[in-house]
Design a protein that fits this description.
With about 725 residues, this protein is an alpha+beta fold. It has three domains: about 40 residues; about 350 residues, Glycosyltransferase (Alpha/alpha barrel); about 290 residues, Beta-galactosidase, Chain A, domain 5 (Distorted Sandwich). About 35% of the residues lie in helices and about 20% in strands. It is built from 19 helices and 29 strands. The strands form eight sheets. Strands 13-14-15-16-25-20-19-18 form an eight-stranded antiparallel beta sheet, with no helix packed on it. The protein has a five-stranded antiparallel beta sheet with strand order 5-6-7-8-9, with helices on one face. A four-stranded antiparallel beta sheet has the order 10-17-24-21, with no helix packed on it. A hairpin with a 2-residue loop joins strand 6 and strand 7. Helix 9 crosses helix 11, helix 12 packs parallel to helix 14 and helix 16 runs parallel beside helix 18. It is elongated, with a radius of gyration of 27 Å. The C terminus is likely disordered.
């Protein structure tokens, strides 16, 4: 079988798997969409003025004057506001100008790829990193999954999110070169990308994000002499075509995740900022109603993101805030659903990061922006909280957030106090988010989290990872055991497979299989379902299980007990695989890349710059063998990713065992200062006893498997006889 035939067969198998994730209604809808792609659909962008505009009286010269005056529409980028921001935040303005200067030099850097030089004029369909030119054909006929280039890179270029940088640089400096380049880029982009043709138009989501950037940038340039009526007409017609695409081709059914929010956000932005377009009133109504509904669906009642992906929670909320800011600036009522979603999300994220803890990293993250107003290449959770604080005044966001240029612009629109982020921080202690499924246990500089939530959102759970029951540990504000990140979408398929798999996450793998079944890079065909048996945040105990391995020929259930009592330097994790047959069981503990490890009896000593940070000891029934891997190219294990298409080596440690069920493994994560040693695991009927030495003290934890959450601590004296000679996990 040749490569082309194999690829075609795999593509057919993917379609079959994707079909199985759809309802009958979705299948009918998608079939109709496929049929429509073969029927020419005239774009509104090409319509005569009488159809395109609410009133064509006065022509485009008159419409441009209204736009320049801000008549009937909100104004975000404004010269007076720019002067106010520059006077209060000179360092941030200087960083923005530096970013704009890089664009002027033709230099861009996306994700973890090396910097690229665009040339002049820019070829908007050329991937300058891989020197691949995307075909200028009907967008619906481009299969972005089969081209030997990364579509994310070319999409990022064509989102034109650098245009607001150039517009701001002009407002801050009065240097016409920035404005001239912005309009030249728009001219060449319009020349090269007719509506509906080329990779830039592959998907309504891309059209929506580009529309937001172009609309906001154009307004920042509204009184530049180079913005002629002819130029204005070309851009507005493109935006009208984009809005039309956002509505007609919006994501629905199993794909209605953050993409739908981006599409509705683009539709709303065009409708609000260009009221002269004939469809704008109904577009705005449709978009706002849709965004209000999605705000309730995609930001859960406890504030967690429904997609189980922190990066996409930030993107979704920020798109809601862009639309809310435009409505507020226009003096229009802002639907409570939009601000309530931002506030409850901020409450949740602020509670997770507290005063000094690292940001949560679960699920996918492509570092995407709804609107790039600041020069930062990545937005942090604390940056996001600063933005929410600037708009809603949320006290938790004020306490945990940081100031960005985007927050400065929003604050000038909203009129919130310049000192909004100076409030004293108030940390929420241990808590459980019942809808998102995250347990956070805090104690004296330590944060432990356990994921007891669903795999992801909707039937395909596109951005979730197979990390059921994953546990993370941060100490004194630094990540120790964590989630390894996203690594890749398209650029390195082998990274994608591993980084969303169970093996790469701090949980248990059975028979070297993931707890959920992948049907493709953004498709899960079987979701592991978690059942929470017991949570007591005051005592630091979680007892939960999942059914992901019930699908095996000999089905088993993974149950995990986490015990991290407040004030106790020891974290105890006990994993049980119960059911039928003989199985291999493996624990994984991914460590932050600035950490090193040394092998010790029964486990690993984790160090940073030579100083001990954590001990990880393991015992198992019927016996444990230690694992460790770092930066393995063949398996793609032992890597940490902070940016898409980028990774660095990091230690992945753990242990494995094999035997007839029931299998049990105990892992003790202890402070190295307590000299923890001699971990011992016993099973007697329904009782599991874990004993260890802490200095001269003998300690034991007893778990009653027959009762949810039944974990008690006591003396380990009765196990002392077993410690003669000391148990040890093999290498």
């Amino acid at each position: 079988m040749d490569g082309a035939t194999a690829a075609q067969k795999e593509r057919l198998r993917w379609y079959a798997r994707r079909l199985r994730s759809m309802t009958a209604g979705e299948v009918v809808w998608r079939a109709a969409r496929l049929a429509e792609q073969h029927v020419p659909r005239p774009s509104l962008a090409l319509a005569p003025d009488a159809r395109l505009l609410r009133s064509a009286n006065g022509g485009w010269e008159h419409l441009l004057r209204d736009f320049q005056d801000g008549a009937g529409r909100p104004v975000l980028l404004d010269r007076l506001r720019a002067r106010e921001i520059a006077s209060h935040h000179p360092d941030q303005v200087a960083a923005l100008i530096e970013a704009a200067d890089r664009i002027c030099a033709g230099i861009v850097t996306y994700f973890g790829y090396p910097e690229a030089r665009l040339g002049s004029p820019v070829d908007w369909n050329r991937d300058a990193v891989r020197n691949v030119r995307w075909p200028l054909v009907g967008a619906a006929h481009i299969d972005h999954r089969t081209v030997k280039a990364d579509p994310k890179w070319i999409w990022e270029l064509n989102r034109l999110q650098h245009l607001p940088w150039l517009a701001q640089a002009w407002l801050f400096t009065d240097d016409d070169g920035y404005a001239e380049l912005a309009l030249a880029h728009l001219d060449s982009w319009l020349d090269q990308n007719p509506i509906g043709r080329g990779i830039a138009w592959r998907g309504a989501f891309e059209g929506g994000l580009r529309a937001v950037s172009v609309a906001v940038a154009l307004q920042g340039l509204r009184d530049f002499a180079g913005l002629t009526p002819a130029r204005f007409e070309r851009v507005v017609r493109m935006l009208a075509g984009s809005a039309e695409l956002c509505w007609k081709d919006r994501s629905r059914y199993s794909s209605a995740n953050n993409h739908l929010v981006g599409e509705l956000g683009g539709l709303a932005t065009v409708a609000i900022m260009f009221p002269e377009l004939a469809p704008s009133p109904r577009w705005e109504r449709w978009a706002i109603d849709g965004l209000a509904a999605e705000a309730a669906r995609q930001i859960l009642p406890d504030g967690a993101g429904a997609e189980q992906a922190v990066g996409y929670q930030l993107f979704t909320t920020e798109m809601l805030l862009v639309v809310a800011a435009l409505l507020a600036e226009r003096g229009h009522f802002v639907p409570t659903a939009l601000t309530a979603a931002a506030d409850r999300g901020a409450d949740y994220l602020a509670a997770v990061v507290g005063t000094a803890d690292p940001a949560p990293r679960y699920g996918d993250d492509d570092q995407g922006f709804a609107l790039r107003l600041g020069p930062e290449s990545r937005r942090t959770v604390r940056d996001h909280l600063g933005l929410v604080a600037a708009f809603t005044g949320n006290p938790q966001a004020r306490a945990a957030g940081t100031e960005t240029l985007a927050a400065c612009w929003v604050r000038t629109v909203r009129g919130t106090a310049e000192t909004a982020l100076s409030a004293p921080a108030a940390q929420r202690e241990s808590f459980v988010a019942p809808h998102g499924g995250l347990v956070v246990l805090r104690s004296a500089g330590r944060r432990v989290t356990m994921d007891v939530g669903p795999l992801g959102y909707l039937a395909i759970a596109a951005h979730g990872h197979a990390d059921a029951l994953a546990i993370t540990v941060s100490l004194d504000g630094s990540e120790v055991v964590g989630q390894p990140g996203t690594a890749s979408y398209y650029g390195h398929p082998e990274w994608r497979v591993v980084h969303r798999s169970t093996r790469a996450h701090p949980t248990v793998t059975v028979d070297d299989q993931s707890s959920s079944v992948s049907g493709g890079p953004f498709l899960w065909t079987r979701h592991a379902r978690v059942h929470v048996r017991f949570v007591d945040v005051d005592r630091g105990i979680v007892d939960a299980e999942h059914d992901g391995y019930r699908r095996l020929a000999d089905p088993v259930t993974h149950r995990r007990w986490l015990s991290a009592p407040p004030g106790d330097p020891v974290i105890l994790v006990v994993d049980e695989i119960s059911g039928a047959g003989v199985h291999a069981m493996r624990t994984s503990w991914p460590l932050h890349p600035d950490l090193d490890v040394e092998r010790v009896p029964q486990g690993h000593l984790v160090t940073r710059n030579g100083a001990a940070v954590l001990q990880i000891l393991t015992d198992a029934l019927p016996g444990a063998t230690l694992d460790q891997v770092r930066g393995d190219e063949e398996t793609s294990l032992g890597w940490w990713s902070d940016r898409l298409e980028s990774r660095v080596p990091s230690w992945l440690v753990g242990a494995r065992t094999r035997g007839a069920t029931t299998l049990v493994m105990a892992t003790l994560l202890g402070s190295p200062g307590d000299a923890v040693a001699d971990l011992t695991l016993l099973r007697e009927g329904s009782l599991l006893t874990v004993g260890w030495r802490s200095g001269r003290e003998c300690r034991a934890a007893i778990i009653d498997r027959s009762s949810p959450g039944a974990v008690t601590y006591g003396s380990g004296d009765r196990l002392a006889g077993m410690w003669e000679g000391g148990p040890a996990a093999g290498g």
